[in-house]
Amino acid sequence: MNTSVSFKNINRIAIPAIIAGIAEPLISLTDIAVIGNVGRNSVEALAAAGIVGSFLSAIIWIVAQTKTAISAIVSQHLGANRLHAVKTLIPQAITFNLIFSLLIYVVTAYFAEAIFSAYNAEGLILEYAEEYYQIRALGYPLTLVTFAIFGIFRGLQNTLWAMKCSLTGAVINVALDYLLVYGIDGYIPAMHLEGAAYASLSAQAVMLVMALWFFFKKTPFHMKLSFNINPQMRPLLLMAANLFVRTAALNFAIYLANAYATDYGKSYIAAQSILMNIWLFFSFFIDGYANAGNAIGGRLLGARDYRNLWELSKKISLYAVLIALILMAICGMFYDEIGWLFNKEATVLALFSSVFWIVLIMQPVNAIAFMFDGIFKGLGEAKYLRNVLLVATFLGFTPTLLISDYFGLKLYAIWMAFFVWMLIRSSALVIQFRRKYLNKEV
User: Fold this and answer.
1) Are 302 and 78 in contact (CB under 8 A)?
2) Taking a C-beta distance cutoff of 8 angstroms, is the pair 346, 354 a contact?
3) pLDDT value for 37
4) Distance from C-alpha of 376 to C-alpha of 425, rounded to nearest angstrom
5) Membrane topology type, per the record (predicted)?
6) Which residues lie below 8 Å from residue 401, measured CB to CB, with a gap of 6+?
7) Which position has the higher pLDDT, 373 or 34?
8) Cα 211 from chain centroid (whole Å)
9) Would you say 389 and 425 are in contact if contact means Cβ atoms under 8 Å apart?
10) CA 302 to chain centre
11) Phi then psi for 188, rounded to 5 degrees?
């Protein structure tokens, strides 16, 4: 098997993964841009969409870690020429995702008011958040089954199929956002925040249908469920469990940031919603190379090709940092104009502009952290990733936020805490990778 880590082979996986990865945050960014300019109660609606978007991302990131676990196991078996050993695992993993997502929907939909009250939402913001979430949450089963299938595609070293699904979903979401939020006089009533939720739900349904088509037509796997549990199911669930804990810690940091911003006032949480969604957009953009590291790293480990594994780490880190620098340069040129895309309130824009520079200078550090995140996931090193996130969140992010907030730094406190968080994550992963794999490269 060709184990080359050439620019061409890396980008064959990374570029479609970038496009697929940015589609999901693009859906949220579109919702926020449309909702933030809707006119009536736009600041409250924007704040509600930001809070719900953060919570949805938190849940999906946590439970979608089976996608990463599936990708790692499939890629390692591909590298070892043993795909036949995981054929019964695939339908079992997809079924697990479906059942788990239904359970999450039932529980969170019932406690929606309590959940968003915990974000310090109240009054109209809380009312909007609850209404918006009740519709968006219907997409959990659609999204989590789709993500499981995307993990299979990535394990097979193919991110093109996921890109086609995600891109189609993003286009449908953008079109329906404008159609349903603003309406058409005499034909379609303006549904405002509810319209954005239905637009996202429709996009998720289309993505699932397309993913199933590629699964049945293009992969060697099937959906026939065997009641004899595949031997790889236990390692998959163990890996996913470690990643669940890791992602729960990650989302605790995001929750804390949004809770503090909401407590500062509606203009602060509106600005924070824009900042956070741009940060997530950048993260998913850069994460395309992390996906390549995940897929190729797992295959190289299966083939015991440590020399190319080391080369892979150097090359994708370089490419990701270059992408980060390009994003920084583009945003630097349009620094003030970017805020206007999402909201026209002077106070919101002033808060956004005062802090956006911190989001930008973080990007090269983020790039390194995400690259090694991806590689470690492909190698099955979920336990170490879990421990790094716990340390970064509870010994880095949280103390920095509490101390900075004490001195009244508000949004500055939040993004200084995120910067410390990413510095700890990136440095710990680089040190561990060098320690463990540098001497194996020959």
Assistant:
1) yes
2) no
3) 66
4) 12
5) Multi-pass membrane protein
6) 256, 257, 260, 413, 414, 416, 417
7) 373
8) 18
9) yes
10) 26
11) -125, 125
User: CB-hemisphere CA count at 13 Å for 258?
Assistant: 29
pLDDT, average across residues 355-362: 94
Q: Which residues pair with 188 in a beta bridge?
A: 184
Judged by DSSP in three states, 215 sits in: helix
Amino acid in position 32: I
Give Cβ neighbours of residue 91 (< 8 Å, ≥ 6 apart). Answer: 221, 222, 223, 224, 225, 226
409 DSSP assignment = -
| CB hemisphere CA count around 274 (13 angstroms) | 33
Place of tokens 């019932």: 110
Q: Are 414 and 271 in contact (CB under 8 A)?
A: no
Nearest C-alpha neighbor of 152 from the set 205, 227, 221: 221
| Mean pLDDT of all residues belonging to the chain | 86
d(CA 5, CA 379): 16
Q: What count of residues does the chain have?
A: 442
End-to-end Cα separation, the chain, in angstroms = 19
Reported for 429-433, long-range contacts at CB under 8 A and 24+ positions apart, including other chains, are: 429/368, 429/369, 429/372, 429/373, 429/376, 429/385, 429/388, 430/368, 430/372, 432/376, 432/384, 433/313, 433/372, 433/375, 433/376
Tokens 């999204």 appear where? 143
Cα distances (Å, whole numbers) of residue 278 to 154, 346, 356, 359, 377: 25, 19, 9, 9, 24
Sequence-ordered list of residues with C-beta below 8 angstroms from that of 309, at least 6 positions apart, any chain:
297, 300, 301, 375, 437, 440, 441
> What is the pLDDT confidence band of residue 255, given thresholds at 50, 70 and 90?
confident
Residue range 95-132, pLDDT digits in tens:
998 998 899 999 999 999 999 998 888 888 898 889 99
Query: Which two tokens mark 158?
Result: 């193919």
Distances (CA, A) of 322 to 13, 141, 328, 431: 17, 36, 10, 21
- 3-state SS class at 276: helix
Q: Are 135 and 201 in contact (CB under 8 A)?
A: yes
Q: Measured between alpha carbons, how far is 442 from 437 in angstroms, rounded to an integer?
A: 10
Among 128, 438, 186, 122, smallest CA distance to 311 is for 438
Asked if 283 contacts 250 with a C-beta cutoff of 8 angstroms, the reply is no
Residue 256's H or E segment, with its range, is: helix 233-264
The CA distance from 301 to 104, in Å, is: 34
Alpha carbon 35 to chain centroid distance? Answer: 21
